Amino acid sequence: MCMASKVGICLRDATVARRRDWVRLLSPGNWDRVSPQQRLARGIYRYGVTKVRGDTDIDVDRCVAHIAARMTERLPELVLIIQHALKEDIPELRGDALTIELLGASVEGNINTLLRALRYHIAVERVEPPTAAPECARRLAQHGVPVNALVRAYRLGQRRLNDLVFAEVRSTDIEPLARVAVVEAMTATFFEYIDWISQQVVAV
Length: 204
Known about the structure:
The structure is a single chain. The chain is mainly alpha-helical. The chain has one domain. Helices cover 74% and strands 0% of the residues. Helix 4 runs antiparallel to helix 6, helix 4 crosses helix 9 and helix 8 packs antiparallel against helix 9.
């Protein structure tokens, strides 16, 4: 057997194994036993869902749009959850009233932009950064907040949003394999967006 064939078989087997892991991860009764580190590790995998689409009748785009729409209805709640987590984990973000207000507006703008992109199938490279994001970055810089704290805020926000998405997917009436494909698609978009927006705000 040629090397290319062996590599192809290994990649296929690895993909199948990862999907089985996702099914177990998203099955009732398992999620509470998974550590935050494991959730983050699962959440940032960036392998595609083309195979899943080809092998089943799952309409991944429709499911993703449905989940994004459900989460958009909860936008104020999601903003409060993530903003609270950021202030708890990153002391540098506990600034004056205006800074906290800008932080909340930035969190809301980023979540809303992400969910809108998922809902309407807009590529990350075509979205516009929310106005509050660079303004918040400037405000933090003026108050001597290190850029590392800002980048960390985006990474922690991504992790928390991943957790919220997993919970939302598990609460819907979607078959396990479809859940895997939906989570793969959404977390891939999260990763791309956070990578992109982090570069935008750091350059402010």
